[in-house]
Amino acid sequence: MFRNNANARAGNALATELALKAHCAFNLEQAHAPSYFRALRSKRESRSSRA
After folding, report:
1. Model confidence at 42, in pLDDT bands (50, 70, 90)?
2. Record's superkingdom (predicted)?
3. Domain that residue 14 falls in
4. What's the N-to-C CA distance of the chain in angstroms?
């Protein structure tokens, strides 16, 4: 009985850790995506204005 309970707790901890990592990665991507695309757009615009 104890072994199954320990496995369940370990599985829950792993699932929680994976969910937290996915959540953090998503938030990081959302935070940096707009500035990344803004930088790309400004690079493109500066190249086209030089021509």
Report:
1. confident
2. Bacteria
3. 1-51
4. 74
Is 7 a residue whose pLDDT tops 80? yes
> pLDDT tens across 8-37, in order?
888 899 999 999 888 888 877 777 667 777
Instruction: Give the 3-state secondary structure of residue 50.
Output: helix
Question: Which residue's entry shows tokens 């072994």?
Answer: 3
Helices marked H in 1-51: 2-50
Q: Strands, E, within the chain: which ranges?
A: none
The total domain count for the chain is: 1
**CA–CA separation, 26 vs 22, rounded Å?**
6
